[in-house]
Amino acid sequence: MRSAIENSVVILGAGIAGISAAYHLRKAGISAAVYEANATAGGLLDNFCIEGFRFDNAVHLSFATEPEVRAVFDRTPYLTHPAVSWCWDDGLWLKHPVQNNMFPIEVAQRVELISGFVARPNIEVKNYRDWLNYQYGEAIASRWSLPYTEKYWTVPAEQLGIGWIGDRVRRADLQEVLYGAFTSETPSYYYVSEMRYPCAGGYRAFIEPMIAEVDIHCQHRVTGISLSRRHVYFDNDRSTGFDVLINTLPLPELIALIDEVPEQVRTAAGTLFATSVDLISVGFRKADVQPNLWFYIYDNDILAARAYSPSIKSPENVPAGCSSLQFEIYSSQRKPQTHTPEEMKRNTMMGLQKMGMVKDEDDVLFMHHKKLEWGNVVFDLGMEERRAIVRDWLETVGILTAGRFGEWDYLWSNQAFMSGLRAAEAVKLRGVGQ
Ligand SMILES: Cc1cc2nc3c(=O)[nH]c(=O)nc-3n(C[C@H](O)[C@H](O)[C@H](O)COP(=O)(O)OP(=O)(O)OC[C@H]3O[C@@H](n4cnc5c(N)ncnc54)[C@H](O)[C@@H]3O)c2cc1C
Question: CA angle, corner 410, sides to 169 and 247, nearest 5?
Fold first, then answer.
């Protein structure tokens, strides 16, 4: 027998977007109930501990500039790191971005790469492959960007649009390319100058002040939504009514849960896909196993596209005298994961040895595998139009949708926070709770 509750505002998902929506509603005197499938709140910003080592769910550093976000995040004491990252490429460490830091590369190759850059084609840009060739020239694009795109985005660059790029990928500039080809003393070209991370408690500590103030019901996985009855059903035989629904669940998942959806919307939602991330978390019995906060891996025989050091983010993440790394391996419905967790661990160990980080396997205390089903929204060609069909319909039935997977966009945590805030503003405009 189901037990029904009545809530005026119901929020699905207790990641930063759902929590921010509830928090900002509460500040406006409107109560809202947040329902979360997991046993703890935080979504992607949650963390887990193994043998005294703490790991976030993938890299997670903050570069928030919005005053609203800083007003919450800055209540937690934090460490500041310079935004400098490195790239491992076939035996070489190159500073990021590679095209601006080619000094360590053998001279003949440098000449070829720069010649390709100078002769880059002036083409009409229709997809990400065109964009890369146009920006960097074919030699640089083929050596780094194109294979890396398949590793990280799981699709060839010609299948990706360019709407997601923004300032995430550095535009090439002849002066910068030449400078970095003549000297290793280059400035950081990363689009932010510093990264912040809580002194203690993992990245989630930044949102703890909000978690403490909102009404979250964990272990409530949504299994159905009736629009006509204005009701949400959970996997624990409970259900709740709602006047206003804010969704932060992934759009394809949400649409599959709703009872009455036009075929065209269902079809459009079914085409949206994101990458999944297999995380291999490694604990080392020695300190300083390597010096980089985070780094990209270009070698194809190493499955991971990227890795970062939790122990550099904060020493509080590891027991004294130890260090840690976490590797990210990407897959999707277009490039399904064919490796078992054990194979991924063995491959990571091979990579650690290849990159010179581990000589003796005994230095490794443990390797742990965890899969994040929803990682990065993939901007395959035409995705924005198909997404609009879904978002427009949700608007017509009065469902507000927020967050990385609710908006179906490439949002950082600060942007997901702002997305939740905007959903709260929209509820206020509807006059709910007044
Ligand atoms: C690999 C990677 C690295 C990143 N690095 C950074 C970084 O360095 N800095 C940064 O600012 N941002 C980073 N981000 C982005 C950041 O993680 C997101 O912007 C943010 O966490 C999204 O929050 P959200 O609330 O929108 O989604 P989520 O955190 O995914 O929250 C959605 C919630 O809905 C719940 N849910 C799903 N289905 C159901 C259901 N059926 N019933 C009930 N609950 C359900 C989920 O369990 C989850 O808790 C990174 C993301 C990834 C994937």
Answer: 175
Pairing of strands 222-226, 92-95: unpaired
Q: Is the shortest distance between the CB of 252 and ligand 1 below 6 Å?
A: no
- Fold for domain 3-80+200-272+381-429? FAD/NAD(P)-binding domain (3.50.50)
pLDDT above 70 covers what percent of the chain?
A: 98
Closest residue to atom 16 of ligand 1, CA basis:
413
Show the tokens assigned to 424: 């709260």
pLDDT in tens, 225-255: 999 999 999 999 999 999 999 999 999 999 9
- By three-state DSSP, how is residue 253 classified? helix
Q: How far apart are CA 157 and CA 147, in angstroms?
A: 9
Each residue's pLDDT tens digit, 22-54 = 999 999 999 999 999 999 999 999 999 999 999
Q: What's the pTM value of the predicted model, to 2 decimals?
A: 0.96
Please provide the average confidence, as pLDDT, over all residues in the chain: 95
Whether the CB of 60 sits within 6 Å of ligand 1: yes
* Domain regions of the chain by residue span: 3-80+200-272+381-429, 97-182
